[in-house]
Amino acid sequence: MSDSRAYPILRTPDVDRALHAVGHLLSIADLRNTEVELWARTGRHSGLPRYLDAYGHWLGAAGDDRMWVAPAREKETGPQDPADPLVDVDVRVHGLGLVEGRLAETVGPDQAYVQWLLNGWPAVRCLDLGWQVKHAHVQLVFNASDVCATEPADGHTVFVHVGGREGEAERAEWLARRAGLTVIGPGQYGF
User: Fold this and answer.
1) Strand order in 152-162's β-sheet?
2) What is the pLDDT of residues 165-190, one digit of tens each?
3) In this structure, is the dihedral angle defined by the CA atoms of residues 35, 36, 41 and 46, taken in order, positive or negative?
């Protein structure tokens, strides 16, 4: 089993700009069988109502589209406010419908990420790279700078995920250029 390598291609305080970059990347990808996941850590009382309002219709749903809420582990978060304990929210949807509506408003100040698990990246003949299926992801991290959304930041980060084999860093750069961007930092272990 292997993990992807995630390369940051944009850090911005502007959510719309980040979503625009994601849109460019999605236009390159094979979107068949795409799954979208939203993960966020938020206060049970201060933030969870936003997620329930936006995505609560999937809470406990059977089928492919679901929402889960679980207490955040204190060892991962440090001491918590007993009046507003932290919870982890996880929403998974087949298709692109998750991002429609009020995504940025729902996430607000929370550290969170949305990742698009794609069917594949195209072959890049000029780099002698074939079709990339296993690690074809795009990720938008809100209010954090790492793929797990644990390192707080002022702004949002877009990552392109590729495989870890030789030449895949060049694929990440090629993909970034298609969105009018460039890789702006070292690769991180992905998912």
Assistant:
1) 66-71, 86-94, 35-43, 111-117, 137-144, 152-162, 5-12, 188-189
2) 888 899 999 999 999 999 999 999 98
3) negative
First-to-last CA distance in the chain? 10
Q: Three-class SS of residue 40?
A: strand
Measured CA to CA, the distance from residue 175 to residue 180 in angstroms comes to 9
- 131 contact partners, CB below 8 Å, separation of at least 6: 120, 121, 122, 123
In angstroms, the CA 87 to CA 48 distance is 8
Is this prediction's pTM over 0.90? yes
β-pair partners for 31: none
CA distance 61 to 34: 19
In this structure, the strands spanning 152-162 and 66-71 are unpaired
- For the stretch 94-139, pLDDT in tens is 988 777 668 899 999 999 999 999 999 998 988 877 778 889 999 9
Cβ-based neighbour number of residue 126 at 10 Å: 8
Radius of gyration for the chain, computed over Cα atoms and rounded to the nearest angstrom: 17
